[in-house]
Amino acid sequence: MSIKLAVKFAARIFTTPIKHKVPKREFEMDLKSTQKKITVPVINKDIVTYHYGQSERKILLVHGWSGRGTQLFKIAEELIQNGYSTISFDAPAHGKSEGTTTIMSEFIASILEIEKQFGPFEIAIGHSLGGMSVLNAVKDGLNVNKAIIIGSGDIVQDILDEFISKLKLKNEFSDRLRLYFEDKYQLKMDDFSAYKAAQKIEIPVLVIHDNDDPEVSVKAGKHIHQNLINGFLFLTDGLGHRKILGNQNVIKKILEFIKIN
User: Fold this and answer.
1) How many independent structural domains does the chain possess?
2) What is the Cα Rg of the chain in Å?
């Protein structure tokens, strides 16, 4: 296989999320939320949004790569019991939204369009790539009082490096892949690194990360926290990358952080 083809092949895999079936535990949120298809004009793609709860005090929830708008259901349920409603969405090529490929800039564009149509939001909460997207959206003008990121990735090059090593390709492919994306999307990939966005954000941000996260190293969370002007760090043990979303101590911490002035 030529190098050019190999890079294209890697790029295709990198931008194609896996669509998982909605697990039973998410059925209630799926059933009880008001769902609406909206267009994100900047990227000319349609996404499906979920409005859960009745309150005018709205919180935005952003899932991670290969996630869904109902994935943060446990957090959403607790927020509703505490007087909020949540808006979440299936990012492009995720869940019920159309398409097969997407990239982080499309997550960010979706967030900013959702703010126009459903905002204002008091808080934004993002998991994994959703955490990186929330920080970038705040940097780009998403107006919230506070943000919470859970198991967030950090440096884009690190993410590409790890991806290339999983594919068992030579290290040099990592740079080639980055250059391919920069050329295709006319964007500098490193500009999307979470720590860079963190340096420009003045609102309070709670960074939650598990010490044993096998998918996104805890060093990502620590590094983001070091670069925040007004950051708080909460580390957990033994919850990994996804279980952390349903953990009672984590949810308690989120509610405490939201409620402190």
Assistant:
1) 1
2) 17
